[in-house]
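Summary for the funding panel

The consortium committed to producing paired sequence-structure records for every protein in the target list. Below we show the first two records in order, beginning with the earlier of the two.
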Amino acid sequence: MKKKSIKKFNSLEKQKDIKEIVNFILEYRALKHLPRASLVYLKGPIKENVAEHSFYVTIISWLMARLEGGNEDKAIKMGLVHDLGEVRGGEKNLINKFYTTPLNEPGIIKEISRDYEFKKFPLFELFQEYNEAKTPEAKIAKDADILAQMLLEKECYELGNQSASKWLYFSLTRLKTKLGKKLGKHLIKVKGDKWWLEINKKYILKTKFL
């Protein structure tokens, strides 16, 4: 192949990659418009979409991996892709899953990888590892998913939804890792605005309501 032809070929490949990347980003963004399925039964008052939830899962996964000496990069990526299949298959809460056919998330992730031809982008491999929950990073990401749900439940409880307390304690029983359980127990006890009040104590000495 002549040099001119090679340059043209490479240019076309890059253009194709750009289109695929943009389409993938647009598809991922659709998670912003997908509400959390559990909210139907939790009854608020907080609203949250799957993209917001995934953000918290990612942050928690990162922190837990750092504390546990796990692969932070892998844990972060698992947090980002763990609910990606829901963009095409929809989200089901724990009750829905008993009455409907299980969502074939591995199949959806594999299809997404194939549609965008992400040959060097391990979407499926990361999701499969997360789904099997055998590696330390996958176990961390699974607990991070539950802890992120607990954040939502705690906010609802602190805003007056008394039944959210039962949700919180049920979520606590689902945590598997030692660190996840410690974080969950403390999350239930601590006031949601404690971090903010502590900052105020340092910088605003005359704040009366403290």
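The next record, for a separate protein in the list, is shown here:
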Amino acid sequence: MKWANGWWSSSVLDQILPWLTYLGSHFAVIFFILLSWILTKQRRVLRLLLLLYGIQSAVIYGLKFLVKRERPLFFLEMASKLSEGPGEILDPSFPSGHAAFSFMMATLLSTWFPRYRILFFIVAAFIGWTRIYLGLHYPTDVIAGALLGYGITKLFLHRVDGLEIKTHDQTDGRPIGQPQMECL
């Protein structure tokens, strides 16, 4: 971690990443849930997303306080790159909540908009990488958080009905993924 902190450090990234890392925060998840509810106008979607968020939070924070892994920022006495950002609540390190929440949102979005799933997971992985760059998590924290966020969300989607959002192709109004019927 010390070696990586030295060779990939950049003053531009030090200014930008403390803000971008919050795309996986509790505030971002709440905004995502509210926006999903507003766009769908379905209370069931709101209730199910809040339930999923609660399950994710319970698992993540249960593990954090069970494992009680110290963050690399303190353990390795690394300089904090967070001074340029909005601040951070420093609970235990393992697993990364930001990675879990970003992969939860990416998994949901990729279910609703499968055409863009690679983009959603790239953004989620980028958010996880920001946590390592900032010295807030070890790579294993981020990997575990990502796997939990993805796995819990997939299991939730498999077990619970009602989170299917119908999206339509812009050109002909067909649901995305449905083949076009041609008349002979």
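Regarding this second record: The two ends are 63 Å apart (CA to CA). Residues 10-159 form one domain.
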